[in-house]
């Protein structure tokens, strides 16, 4: 039986790697991989395929950049002829990006059974493009694979039959565990990024905080972006910051003329980092400042304190059990959370249930059983 995995953006690649491996290991299933081309740079795309040993995609739709609607429409137009000519026995989509939404819509309209990995996460904030994607994809999915209890609760309260929900754990943590020993050393990452040698040595020897910010709510409004960068410049007087700039954030900083704010203090700016470099920095950081979804989970799994610059999280287990603190969007709150973290060593946590590196194996076992007509779906 053929299982078609559809991916498009950086976090998708991290999640699909263990699933492709587990599918390949299953004699009864033949994986196929379609890349939408939503992310296309070497730094956002091919380096992840290389490091995570993801097979080359069978097809790349090369949709590139655009508004969310443009991306979604182009992916749908590209996918429909492919999936209708040779319909797979099941389509798998992961996460919540525009590629996930577009692929789910096409599969559902063609009557192809659909599995969603990382189902049920809800921020409750529909101004996030990802939240709209999550709601629609879950509504259309036949099998919903969840990573934490809140996701099961959300799906049940939305009326999804518990028979379709399978609690499998977190595929992103499968990848983290598989790659942790290969993480890149901090010094080599910083010198590879062309950072000032004295500043890099200071970061490696005395400690640093790792920063990633790219959510539209933080970076698309120039005033908001300016105040965040000012806050980072103040924090950098207390601890060196390593700021991995997402292309979206870089573009916004440049168009708002805010580049100077990054030059004035102990901030090491790097391009988007490869997976092994990013987890190498995360593992060694005193703490992390982020608005990413995946980084909230990775820091919890690594036991590194995380300050999330958002008002809501779709991953509450990272706050309830892990090392994550939802700081909110106030600059003052961020500054005081940093002070508390520096003074107290940061929040400690525990590893959430089923974040054990075996989520992809459970997903493939459930799909195999489902397609084989066996009754292996567990009640949630
Ligand atoms: C997308 C996802 C987000 C995820 C993030 C991780 C959606 C709605 N959002 O946001 O959930 O956390 O990816 O990176 O799908 N760009 C490049 N090179 C690339 C890819 C993008 O320069 O390889 C530029 C684009 O031209 C665009 C900007 O980055 O200007 C944003 O890319 P886009 O794919 O629209 O969304 P992200 O902000 O990356």
From TrEMBL:
It comes from the Bacteria. Keywords: Isomerase. Residues 23-367 form the UDP-N-acetylglucosamine 2-epimerase domain. It holds the Pfam family Epimerase_2. GO terms for molecular function: UDP-N-acetylglucosamine 2-epimerase activity. CDD domains: GTB_UDP-GlcNAc_2-Epimerase. InterPro entries: UDP_GlcNAc_Epimerase_2_dom (IPR003331), WecB-like (IPR029767). Its EC number is 5.1.3.14. It is an enzyme of class 5 (isomerase). PANTHER family: UDP-N-ACETYLGLUCOSAMINE 2-EPIMERASE. Belongs to the UDP-N-acetylglucosamine 2-epimerase family. This is UDP-N-acetylglucosamine 2-epimerase (Non-hydrolyzing). It comes from Methylosinus sporium. The lineage of its organism: Bacteria, Pseudomonadati, Pseudomonadota, Alphaproteobacteria, Hyphomicrobiales.
């Amino acid at each position: 039986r053929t299982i078609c995995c559809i991916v498009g953006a950086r976090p998708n690649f991290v999640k699909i790697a263990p699933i492709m491996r587990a599918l390949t290991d299953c004699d009864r299933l033949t994986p196929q991989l379609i890349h939408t081309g939503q992310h296309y740079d070497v730094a956002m795309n091919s380096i992840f395929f290389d490091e995570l040993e993801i097979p080359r995609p069978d097809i790349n739709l090369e949709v590139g950049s655009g508004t969310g609607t443009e991306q979604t429409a182009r992916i749908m137009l590209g996918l429909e002829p492919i999936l209708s000519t040779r319909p797979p026995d099941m389509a798998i989509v992961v996460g919540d990006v525009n590629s996930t939404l577009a692929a789910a819509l096409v599969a559902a309209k063609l009557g192809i059974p659909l599995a969603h990995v990382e189902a049920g996460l809800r921020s409750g904030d529909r101004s996030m493009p990802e939240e709209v994607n999550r709601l629609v994809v879950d509504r259309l999915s036949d099998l919903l694979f969840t990573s934490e209890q809140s996701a099961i609760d959300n799906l049940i309260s939305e009326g999804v039959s518990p028979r379709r929900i399978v609690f499998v754990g977190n595929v992103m943590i499968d990848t983290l565990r598989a790659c942790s020993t290969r993480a890149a050393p901090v010094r080599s990452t910083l010198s590879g990024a062309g950072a000032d040698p004295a500043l890099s040595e200071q970061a490696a020897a005395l400690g640093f905080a790792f920063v990633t910010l790219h959510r539209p709510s933080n970076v698309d409004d120039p005033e908001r972006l300016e105040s965040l960068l000012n806050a980072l410049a103040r924090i950098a007087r207390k601890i060196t910051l390593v700021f991995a700039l997402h292309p979206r954030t870089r573009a916004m900083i440049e168009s708002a003329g805010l580049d100077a704010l990054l030059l004035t203090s102990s901030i090491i700016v790097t391009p988007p980092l490869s997976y092994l470099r990013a987890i190498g920095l995360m593992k060694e950081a005193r703490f992390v400042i982020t608005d990413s979804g995946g980084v909230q989970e990775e820091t919890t799994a690594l036991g590194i304190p995380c300050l999330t610059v958002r008002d809501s999280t779709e991953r509450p287990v990272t706050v309830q059990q892990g090392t994550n603190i939802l700081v909110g969007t106030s600059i003052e709150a961020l500054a005081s959370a940093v002070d508390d973290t520096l003074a107290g060593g940061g929040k400690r946590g525990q590893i959430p249930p089923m974040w054990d590196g075996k989520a992809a194996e459970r997903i493939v076992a459930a799909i195999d059983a489902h397609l084989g007509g066996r009754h292996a779906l567990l009640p949630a």
